[in-house]
Structure formats: C-alpha cells, structure tokens
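tool=predict chain=A
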Amino acid sequence: MKLVITIVQDEDTNKLIQKLNENKFMATKLASTGGFLKTGNTTVFVGVEEEKVQDVIDIIKSVCKTTKQMSLLNQPIASMTEGYISYPIEVTVGGATLFVIDVEQYLKI
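tool=predict ok
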C-alpha cells in the first residue's frame, strides 16, 4: 500500500476531491500554507494500492494546472537597518507537489 500526499492550491481542492471520489478513491484534506507565497494550500492524503498509484497521479495531473502570476518580493535594503523594498516578480503557481510513500501498516478501527 502507498500513501500519496499532494499539496494543491485551494482553488483546485474541491474539483480534485470530486474527481478522486468519482473514481472510487477516498481522500482526506488538511488546510496548509505555502512558505514562499504565504497563500492557502490544501494537503490531500490518498491511501491506495500500489497498482493504482498511477491512476491517482493521472487524476491529479488532469485537475491541477500551473499558471504564472505576479507577486511582490520583499528585498532588504542593505543601507538601512530596518526596511524592505518590494518589487514584482513573475512566479509559477498551481500544479501539485506529490509525495508517494510506503505504508508500513494500515488499520481502520
């Protein structure tokens, strides 16, 4: 058995859970926050038999797409002890980050 841990943007969560459920995959979701953009994410956990892992990955790929957006980067000003200057940078957002790990033991009590 494997555990697929997927981090997705909040706006993709409902569609992803719906698609997983339509394909008979049960999922657990947790709210999370990204460290770079400080925006809301959702971490989705799916326990699945090893032969079904690629099916789960294919569903995630079909739902979670990347886009580009402008974000403000706060850069410290070297000559000031306290102060930052913000300037826009283009970043790629969306898509999904996946971890597939072995499950040593699975119990449903």
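The mean pLDDT is 86. The first strand starts at residue 2 and ends at 9.
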